[in-house]
Records
---
Amino acid sequence: MYENITGIFDSHSHYDDPAFCPGETGEAGRFRPCACGASGDGPAEVLKSVADKGVAYVMTCGTSVESSARSLDIASSLEHVYCAAGIHPECAEECPSDYMDRLLPILSHSKTLAVGEIGLDYSYPVPREPQLRIFEEQVLLANRLSLPVIVHDREAHADTFDILMRHRPRGVIHCYSGSLEMAKEYVKAGFFLGITGIVTFKNARKVRELAEWIPEDRLLIETDAPYLAPEPFRGCRNDSSLLFRVAESIAEIRGCTPREVADFTRENARALFGVKE
């Protein structure tokens, strides 16, 4: 349990998601109750609770202009929480033409440490042209601002790889789902790869192989909260307090201790995002 694992850095979450305000939004039915999870309904209450359960740092990621602003509001009120701002591919088609001007004030804040969540997702019914255009624009923006990127890549491996290799930002491929061969190229280019609760699923052979192979200095762990809760909490609302299960699974795969996983992934995330002690 998390009592034995401290100093965890949850490198990817979404605490502005309506699932963290079920009393106001009627979203409570999306996930099963999780007795082991953090207490409280609102994001501030949950985030305060996880700080007592081994979690030292949390990155909460925006998905739209409005979501990014909410993420910054959350991060600004809690010392151990940071945020990223960006346009998720799901939001690309309805993205406002002035999105860049509206993101810039958020990205200039001291608690905003990355451009994200950005990327490509060809499983969504969103045309590829706006996804490709907005993703590339945001990668260029990140380079201009000297910020890392947090990249979403789902069923768009070739195009994601092409844009990232052409522009070479710093960053992480969140919830990495590509091949081992592509992972090797990303690592060679200096990218980090994120592993979620999927690594605890019985049928996640490819993710478990990646968790074993990824070099220690390139691996991050993440929840993607409120999604992708690890076993045995699958189907529950995920939160950062459950990240201990990801650390335990990776430790088992790699033949080390959960504390070692928490330690080296924390230092990797701090290095990527520029978080000081």
---
Amino acid sequence: MKYQIKKTTAAVDLAAEWDSACWKDVEALRIVNARCESSNHRPETELKMQYDESGIYGLFLVKDYYVKSVHTDFQESVCRDSCVEFFWQLPGAGYFNLEMNAGKGMLLYYIRDNTHTENGFKDFTILPEEDMLMLKKFHTMPDVIDPEIVGDTTYRVGFYIPFELMKKYATFKQPSAGTFWRMNAYKCGDRTSHPHWISWNPVHALNFHCPEDFGVLEFC
């Protein structure tokens, strides 16, 4: 699968509504490929993205029914909460995994070798707090959601990733029209009452850390 990310010259507001002026004309990808290990819960999840000279902007829209979020610090296991994720791979380099729960929590690693070991991966970097502070996150839900909400709930999670941050870990050419990266996007909730693992591009196993399963991100 392929997603075409378009360049914007206008200011991007992560807090703007899904159909606001700065987001309404941006194409949305749908995260619908659920793993068979999932419960019967299938939250409707979409992602819009755009970029400018400084970085990439994204906005998730989730229509959920069971929502829980308890991790608030950088690099905690937010995938156990109601969580959305964006993974991207630079040409000839490793990949980043941005994971964000519905509340305050956020995780980002740079992974050069995704071979599993008892310590996680064979070769990876957990980004320090000073680098995490270069990111921007927006969320419409409270910082903590506990106990779990049961009932129709719609929320947004937005992010901004500066190219400056990526260049601290990998060498790459500034993207422009005609540049191709690889990516995938996910919705999960490992330890919610109704666990689920859903992807944009299908994954061949219950493992989101498989770059061979990534789709194409085309810069326009």
---
Amino acid sequence: MEERFETFTLLISKINRSIKKIKSVEMAEYNLKSPHVSCIYYLYKAGSLTAKQLCDICDEDKASVSRSIEYLENNGYIECNSLTQKRYKSPLKLTEQGKSIGEAVCSKIDNILNEASSGLLDADRGVMYRSLKLISENLQKIVEKYED
């Protein structure tokens, strides 16, 4: 049992550190950080999302997403054309510059995912993702018990 715990936590930590390092190195040429990458990626895929939707899909807190939105907006990557009072619920979309970066980001992500999963059969990949999803959901249920 002890070895299972060590292996699981060590591998998850290593994967997380590797992802952060890859994001940092790959996005340096665009002056983007990890939360910026997630915002651009999901906006590129969806076309338009609100700040709240970005928080949910990126699994980031409101402050982090707000800082990312501010940075991306100030640097010409995203825009908010809504005149509503509730900016948090206003749709955001990529500018032409943002779309260009979004395309490059998605291409880099696809290449890295292909390289990272080399040697995995499609069936193995499916089992891995289903297993990770189940583990994530089960851990979230445990966390929710602590919050009650």
